[in-house]
Write a structure and sequence with these properties.
single chain, about 110 residues, mainly alpha, 4 helices, about 60% helix, about 0% strand
């Protein structure tokens, strides 16, 4: 959701498609890699070792991108509170004060 908001709402479909594609690649490749790690370690904790490897990779990539300033940190005063809604309609988006009235949604 942060990726969609940081794009300014202009490329919602493209960002969603990219996230779905990344998820599908991970869903296809992860079982194969996890079973390979479990076979190499020949121990019941091989799956947990795989999870540690994946999460460690995520941590290193995140730290690298933060150092390169490609991950934007939103200041606390710029953050807005989350307000859950029971149900929505397209009219709600026009009522949102953060929405751009000039942006054509059709």
């Amino acid at each position: 959701m942060g990726a969609i908001l940081s794009s300014g709402g202009q490329d919602v479909v493209a960002v969603s498609a990219g996230l779905l594609f990344a998820y599908s690649i991970g869903a296809c490749v992860s079982p194969l890699l996890a079973s390979g790690v479990m076979t190499l370690l020949d121990a019941p904790f091989g799956l947990f070792a795989f999870w540690c490897l994946v999460n460690g990779t995520f941590a290193v990539v995140t730290l690298y991108l933060r150092k390169q300033e490609k991950v934007e940190i939103v200041a606390v005063e710029d953050q807005v509170a989350f307000v859950p809604m029971k149900s929505t309609s397209p009219v709600v988006m026009s009522m949102d004060p953060r929405s751009d009235p000039e942006f054509d949604r059709s």
